Amino acid sequence: MNRVSWKGKSLMTVLALLLVITGCSGEVQKEGSTAEEGGIDRESPVLTNPKDFKFDPPVTVSTGIRWSAQGENEFKEGETIQDNFHTRWMSDSMGINLTFDFVVPNLEDYQTKLRLMMAGNQKLPDVFTTKVEMANDLISAGKVQPLNDYIDQYLSDNLKAIYEKYPEVLYPVTRDGQIYGLPNMFAMDEGTVMWVREDWLNALGLEAPTTIDEMTEVLRAFTEDDPDGNGKDDTLGLAVSLKEGPYNWMSSADGLVGAFGNHMPSKYIWEYWNPDESGQLVYNGIQPGIKDFLAQMRDWMSNGYVDPEAGIKDAAKAGEIAASGEAGIIFGPPWMDGYPLGGVEGFKAYPLPAGPGGQQARAEKSMVRDYLVFNKDFNNVDAMMGYINKIYAASFGEEDPYFDEALRNGWMEGYDYVLHEGNVYRGNFDEHGIPSDKWPNPADANVTYDLTLPFMNGIIPFQSDSAFQKFLSDPDADPDNMAEISVSKAKPRMLEAGIVRVSQNDNVIVNYFNGPPTKTMVSKGELLIKLMTESYLKIIYGDEPVDYFDTFVEEWKKNGGDQMTEEVNEWYENVKQ
Amino acid sequence: MTEPVFNTDKKALRLPTRGWRAYLQKTWPLHVLLLPAVLLALVYNYIPIMGIVIAFQDYKPWLGFGGSPWVGLDHFRYLFEYPDSMQIIRNTLIIAFAKIMTNMFVPVIFALLLNEIRIKWFKRTAQTLVYLPHFLSWVILGGIFVDILSIRGGIVNRFLGTLGIDPIAFLSNGDWFRFTVIVTDAWKDFGFSAIIFLAAIAGTNPSLYEAAEIDGANRWQQVLHVTLPAIAPIFIVVATLSLGRVLDAGFDQIFNLYNPLVYSKGDIIDTFVYRVGLLGSQYSFATAIGFFKSLIGFIMIVISYRLAYKWAGYRIF
Predict the structure, then answer these.
(1) Which domain holds residue B103?
(2) Is residue B4 one of the residues assigned to a domain?
(3) Which among A124, A37, A134, A53 has a CA at the least distance from the CA of A95?
């Protein structure tokens, strides 16, 4: 045989092999069948005995989790994420055996894992959390089951009341009135406050600004009057990140945008949308108030009051000059007390300044972290509902019908707290004279163990608001629920900042659109966001006149913005009833 | 141990005369040795090529390759009809081409210079120091360069200030941004890329230098007529391979350095795809872009390979 035919033969072998393999992967399942109701053919102990229900024989629930050790004191010796005090509590007290299909270290791996399982048509875990985009895919694929009946029958009334209070948290997982997921909510304690160098104010004999005009004067003084008294021209007024638009997770300018109207641009096309007078949702980034904000920033920038590199720095980078003592004002959440401002004693939290006509507002972030969804083939949903009720009851307090005594002071005695002579202690065990064998870690008096909850965090939005004043007045006060326990650990300056934040809770900018991205969002969203961030910075940096804003708005509308607005309102009409 | 695998018998070393069967009989151990590499390439490089079909589909993971609807060239059309796409492709080509040029010539020049150094410890230290940046991630370098190149007290602008030059906005002026991207990329990688040229220089036959010296060549002439021809083949290989990356302008670097102020001069295909990808899992679009880039890269490699053969008479394979 000559060389050519040998080549031809091997090529054919390869092709045949490829065909075999394609044939295999070609066996993909048909369009996902509609989820069947997981029927429960037994009497549910959750209904007969809400406080102390126990499944006998025990039920098994599989899940997947994203978890990685944050420090060396994550678990006690011999405990793991798969087998720890919490999973044992679940099986011992409720008869729910938890198994883990996979444990991965970060969100990206978690999403990939689930996507692969979906693509390979493998069995998904019984119950697991997922971000809204993937929840959307899972629902479309018919992989998860509707929960309406279970919510009606089993979910605690207190939790249902929360969903009624914030109905929008369920919109993204609702299809034709069927609810496919339960939201894990945020505590909503991250609203922006204004951090100002109080020592600089005192040194220059100034008051903290309450309006934008007063702020201009303070920024000028911070920049030009040598507030740190070292005789060098090395300070400036405002540290801020404008690279990804004015709203960011810290070093934000949302408190300044809010001084010019109740509209907030963001780097994501799906926020912020809120209703105008006619009730139609409008895109916030093109509203006239933004133009005034840009004009003000441009003015400050040209005078050198603002970090000249605000446009190229992300939030963490922008915070550095506040942390190094070069900038006098920075906006961001109360937790900036610890990072990045932990090393600068002089910073103190103040309310956001008011703009023309007393207008003042901040952006409020989305209320939902992710959703808990239930595999369409999973039959023990009632057990999970009972467990979820108990976790939330720990937040609602002892009045809740599902309140479990075991969770009164924390997740577990000897882990996150210690009971000693009738008192509860959560740290400094040696100072309180507690014998070391009772410490969570007998080798270290300050170690307590946090818990990574496998399904729901049990957090209720805004529940901690009242706790800030309580623990500022009396650091040793007794916390009444899980939210208060977490606030009780905060330092005084952060508690003060929390109080400042709560004082401005009445005027927040909320995003009304939280459905899946619309068609035009997917095809044109990137273009529109790029156009917006570019135009904003060109105006702030003086590359274009302020009136360029009007050109930008025209362009924005023409390039798909109008169409997107229509789609968003179509969605809004559907969910609003 | 068993007997040696290779037959050193004189008869077996003769070229095969009785067809491939006899040939195989004698050389099968070599084929067995090659097998794992072929299998690896097949499993990890060739079979996944089938995934390209999703570039022509509206791919949904739960529908699979078989069930996702076909959309023809829609994703490619989208890339080219996008209002910004010409700008993005132009930026990509300019930055990538400039990087290929600098990354080819700077390491060669550095290798030649280093080769002339006689002090061994200095030579070794210098070589180690310049290739270290290769191992730093752009996430870290991005933060460092924002500080170093700051217009407010950055070390570079302070130095320029002492020369009486006004601060330069390296990262927020479009033209300077391109310059910065190209120079910092060369800085990061020239030491590492020089290793291959240093190896080629070290492999030059010393007798050639001796002969040149006897013929009265000075050092410069030696470089020109001995060293350069010696490393020319390696240079052509590197050049040919790097032309395949003509649409790779360096995602990590640009992503960590760019900002809206320089979009018009610094936004590249990969950063664009990243931003589009933020809006959900657009597998098909990403695959289409990847396919497009590979296709262009493949064409460039074929062309440059032909040119290398035509002009330099050099063949890799």
Answers:
(1) 82-312
(2) no
(3) A53
